[in-house]
Write a structure and sequence with these properties.
The protein is built from 13 helices and 15 strands. It is α/β, with parallel strands linked by helices and 317 residues long. The protein has two domains: 117 residues, Rossmann fold (3-Layer(aba) Sandwich), CATH 3.40.50.1980; 139 residues, Rossmann fold, CATH 3.40.50. The strands form four sheets. Strands 9, 10, 11, 12, 13, 14 and 15 form a seven-stranded mixed β-sheet that branches. Helix 6 packs parallel to helix 12. The N and C termini lie far apart (49 Å). The relative contact order is 0.12.
């Protein structure tokens, strides 16, 4: 089996299934597990990601408005990779290369016998017509001829979430049965609120998600709308940004947060996290993302998780 993964999350799924040795091509964003970046890179971005978040947002919106693709697929590299399976997505044209661009590239090299697996998770697990991350693990596994391993991995992720949720519920009861109100921020400028699987992660961690419901896409809020909220805890994890990248806009964040009349501001319970490694990627590390949320939502009950992920999040001081 020769596998091309054009998503960071699907690359992590491939690794969880023990199929990393069969990976012959990746996207320019694939950086986990360590060492995977040595594989041939088959995509690139047309947007300058070294800009500030406001400028990135402007350029992305302009590109989409002009009906242009945000990413390029290296058709010649794809031909050289000779894939049996290509993993891509049709959920968000901003987050990764679109399935249409992959189809065009495959047509250009007259590659007709490739199994194209397109992922579109909006929740943690399948529900009705909505695809979930854990279901995607099983779908990828089936495409790779590893169905049994896929069920084992997916069931393990589900079990870890159940165990974490049970511990969080004990913490909620110990604090009088009140779930802290949690606001998750997906983008800095403009401010976008975490949707899709984020409300479920908040609930697992013993919190109450503000603004969005499970499966909903990220809405944009202005300052007045933000000021009306009353979060007890705020988590800022910009899409695709690690902590060092977020630090480049830390003054913008501090100014914005200081202006908000929130309980979270008064109690200094505002945190930044590595969105690139956690939260943003619909893969196996979403369970670890829930652990980070539990550590900031119920710190007394989840000190082990806070220590485990100490390099992945910190207070916005």
């Amino acid at each position: 089996m020769r596998i091309v993964s054009l998503l960071p999350s699907s690359t992590e799924i491939v690794e969880s299934l023990g199929a990393l040795d069969e990976l012959v091509g990746i996207s320019h964003e694939c950086d986990y597990p360590p060492g995977v970046e040595t594989r041939p890179v088959l995509t690139s971005s047309k947007i300058n990601i070294d800009q500030l978040s406001a400028d990135i947002d402007r350029d992305v919106r302009r590109t989409l408005r002009d009906a242009l693709a945000v990413y390029d697929v290296d058709a010649s590299g794809l031909e050289e990779a000779r894939p049996d399976v290509v993993l891509t997505q049709d959920l968000c044209d901003v987050c990764a290369v679109s399935i249409r661009d992959v189809e065009i590239a495959l047509d250009a090299i007259a590659k007709k016998d490739v199994k194209l697996v397109s992922l579109k998770p909006t929740r943690l697990d399948d529900l009705g017509e909505a695809h979930g991350v854990f279901g995607d693990v099983e779908r990828v596994a089936a495409a790779l001829g590893r169905a049994d391993e896929g069920r084992r991995v997916a069931d393990g992720l589900r079990a870890r979430c159940r165990d974490l949720a049970q511990r969080a519920e004990v913490a909620v009861e110990a604090s009088g049965g009140v779930r802290p109100k949690v606001l998750t921020i997906e983008w800095i400028d403009p401010v976008m609120i975490g949707g899709t699987w984020m409300p479920e992660l908040v609930e697992i961690a013993g919190g109450e998600a503000l603004v969005t419901k499970p499966g909903e896409h990220a809405p944009t809020l202005d300052r007045d709308q933000l000021a009306e909220l009353r979060p007890d805890v705020v988590l800022i994890k910009p899409c695709g940004f690690d902590l060092a990248r977020t630090d480049r806009e830390i003054d913008t964040l501090r100014e914005l947060m200081a202006a908000m009349p929130w309980p979270a501001t008064e109690s200094a319970r505002i945190f930044v996290a590595d969105g690139n490694a956690f939260f943003n990627r619909p893969g196996p590390r979403l369970v670890e993302s829930a652990e980070i949320l539990a550590a900031i939502t119920h710190p007394d009950a989840f000190t082990a998780e806070a220590n485990k992920h100490a390099t992945g999040f910190r207070p916005l001081s």
